[in-house]
Design goal:
This protein is an alpha/beta fold. It contains eleven helices and 13 strands. It folds into three domains: 129 residues, no CATH class; 66 residues, no CATH class; 35 residues, no CATH class.
């Protein structure tokens, strides 16, 4: 699972803290990643004494204006993917000194301890594309800094363009049924009643890719910051339609 924080405050963190502990206890913490604005990595490093080994499966990284290749080493905390090794670390004499002293010391300790075992590491940077956005085959999540002074992020969630499905009504009107449906899916075309029918002819209409904006608006200044973002240029031109804006704000700002 990926957790994305819009800002660092008790309001945004209260729900995450018990989740970190509970997921560890149920064995569901492996591979989880936490992203957020500047300061998130140093905050979790400082809280390691509170979590102890419960934070070890998680990887934490800064997300936002920094491109992946430019992300400093102190802007990411490595995690581990092996619960047995996580428990074993408690018996290492140099574990507390290295793991709790600082970000780079913690990462260096894990890298040295598990050198050559790259599949042991959970690295949140691996979930980012070259632009520094969270990315997989289904979605790209762009962090927009709407208040640079206070490091507040909005998230533009861009869903990938889905593969059009076969239209049942077009199948019926074309007279395609039974084994012919599978055949046209496999070959891309069929011959029926002396006419060639292409797969494209029986697909549903394509829709433009869609986006959802998650907007943590703590002040009117955030509205100005969002409106100036270049990331909104493309959606507003219709190439990537925003279908919903999820606002997190107070009544007076609404």
């Amino acid at each position: 699972m990926n957790f994305l924080l819009t800002r660092i405050s008790s309001e945004t963190l209260d729900g995450l803290h018990p989740n970190v502990t509970n997921l560890f206890g149920t064995g569901m913490a492996i591979g989880n990643r936490i992203y957020g604005p500047q300061g998130i990595v140093s905050m979790f490093q400082a809280m390691k004494t509170k979590y102890y080994i419960k934070l070890l499966p998680f990887s934490v990284a800064t997300i936002g204006s920094i491109k992946k290749e430019s992300l400093p080493t102190d802007q990411c905390l490595l995690g581990l993917r092996d619960m047995e090794e996580i428990y074993n670390l408690q018996n290492e004499t140099d574990f507390p000194l290295s793991y709790f002293s600082g970000i780079q010391a913690a990462n260096s300790f894990l890298e040295a301890k598990f050198a050559g075992k790259m599949n042991f590491f959970n690295d949140a940077r691996e979930g980012l594309n070259s632009e520094g956005n969270l990315f997989d085959k289904e979605v790209e999540i762009i962090a927009i800094n709407v208040d640079e002074k206070n490091d507040i992020l909005a998230y533009l969630v861009k869903f990938a363009k889905g593969t059009p499905k076969i239209s049942k009504s077009k199948l019926a009107s074309s007279g395609i049924s039974g084994k012919l449906v599978k055949e046209i899916q496999q070959k891309g075309e069929i011959e029926l009643n002396g006419r060639k029918i292409l797969l494209e002819e029986i697909l549903e209409e394509e829709f433009d890719p869609i986006s959802v904006l998650v907007f943590d608006c703590v002040s009117v200044a955030c509205i100005d910051g969002l409106s100036k973002s270049p990331h909104l240029d493309t959606p507003l031109k219709g190439q990537h339609k925003i279908i919903a804006v999820i606002h997190m704000t107070s009544t007076d700002i609404v």
